[in-house]
Design a protein that fits this description.
The chain is an alpha+beta fold and 78 residues long. Helices cover 40% and strands 18% of the residues. The chain contains 2 helices and 4 strands; from the N terminus they run αββαββ. β3 and β4 form a beta hairpin. The longest helix is centred in the middle third of the chain and has 24 residues.
């Protein structure tokens, strides 16, 4: 069965990062086009939720952990 993630992986063009989502990163940095496009779709909602949780928890500390290469990063707000 073909999944949306498979279609994303099939798009192998390389493009620069969106400077609005990655301020300060050199325009010479290139990423997988499928990653860039999917990231742009979810980044605003994720950032808004992280900011909301940081406000609720009254913190400025955020850590990401990637225990195994095959797993996505986990976000801890403390």
């Amino acid at each position: 069965m073909l999944r949306v993630s498979d279609l994303t992986d099939l798009n192998v063009l390389m493009d620069p990062l969106d400077t609005k989502l990655f301020p300060g990163v050199s325009s010479s940095v290139q990423v997988h086009d499928g990653f860039r496009n999917e990231h742009a779709l979810t980044a605003p909602a994720i950032l808004a939720e992280v900011k909301r949780l940081m406000s609720v928890k009254n913190t400025k500390n955020v850590a990401t952990v990637r225990a195994f290469p095959c797993l996505r990063r986990m976000l801890f707000i403390f």
